[in-house]
Every structure is written in C-alpha cells, then in structure tokens.
Amino acid sequence: MEAYAPDGTTTPPTTPPTTPPTTPPTTPPTTPPTTPAGNPNLAQGHPATDTGHNDVYTAGNAVDGNQGTYWESTNNAFPQSLTVDLGATKTVGRLVLKLPTGWGARTQNLTVLGSTDNNTWTTAKSGAAYTFDPNTGDTVTINLPTTNTRYLRLTFTANTGWPAAQLSELEAYAS
To answer: Could you tell me the pLDDT band of residue 38, with boundaries at 50, 70 and 90?
Structure first.
C-alpha cells in the first residue's frame, strides 16, 4: 500500500520514535589510580612504638589517620618518645602534628630525631615549644631540613595542658 500526500507525492513510511536505551551508561572504573598522590603522608599506617602510654592511648593511634584518636604517654614521666618506622628510608621535609579538635590550647616541648637503622639517631629539629591551638585546628607544622630517614622519633619533654605527651596524628611529608 502506498500513501499519498495532499500534493500527490508519496510519503515514506513512518518510523516509530526511538526510545532511550534501557541500560545506563557505563560508570568509570572503581579501581584506584596507579599513580599515588603527589605528596602522601609517609607515616600513616606504619608501625609506631612508644616509651610508655596511658591506658588504651597507644602509639598506633598517632598514625591511624584519625584525628579523633590519640597517643598519650605515661603520666608524670617526661621525657617520653614516639617512634614511627616508615618502612624504608624516605626523604622527609615536613611534619604535621595534630591533637583532637576542640581540646584546650597547650604547648608541648619536643625534639625531632631521625635514623636509618633505629640505633644511631640524628637531630632533625632541636627541642622547641609548639603551641596547639583549637582556633587553628589543633595543628602544628614543623619544617625540617631535607632528611633521609627510615625512623622518625619525637621526644617530648613538657606539656602545659596535661602531665603527659599527647599526639593525635604524626604526619610526615617529603615537602
């Protein structure tokens, strides 16, 4: 059967409108990229030890990536140290130290040491007072001379907010 338009020409058969596809478009791959971030935290998730801790506030809390957990040394027993094994010798140029958000302001005195063998230690940053202030996120940044180290050690000698060393996160970066 042929159909004719009012002007006498034939019209092609009509085709039904196309329907949208029933399957959604493919999503991007869920595998992480193979290239790590440009300046990852070298300490996170690595083994940490301490010279003493109070109750459940162990050294591992300082490298777990959670600012809500923390390490607290033995009370009234300064100096106290926290040591992190980076797993291999790495270049470290900056530390970021954190306390849980919302704590009262306090100043902690500490020294930063580095070692490639966990026996011989070199001072990367001499003892100094660092103020953790809730108005600035309870965070302190310590810039270091470029240091090649496998082990990082923080030795605390005082804390104005509590009779023990306290640290929520020890983050180590190449720059």
So the answer is: confident
Pairing of strands 166-167, 106-115: unpaired
What residue ranges in the chain does DSSP mark as E strands?
48-50, 71-72, 80-98, 106-115, 122-132, 139-159, 166-167, 169-173
Contacts of 174 (CB under 8 A, 6+ apart): 39, 42, 90, 91, 92, 93, 94
Q: What is the amino acid identity at position 25?
A: P
Q: How far apart are CA 116 and CA 171, in angstroms?
A: 18
Q: How far apart are CA 149 and CA 143, in angstroms?
A: 15
- pLDDT, tens digit, for every residue of 139-172? 999 999 998 999 999 999 999 999 999 999 999 9
Spatial contact of 109 and 56, defined as CB atoms under 8 Å apart: no
Mean confidence (pLDDT) of the chain = 87
Measured distance CA(66)–CA(160) in Å, rounded: 23
Strand partners, 173: 94
Segment 35-51 shows an average pLDDT of 88
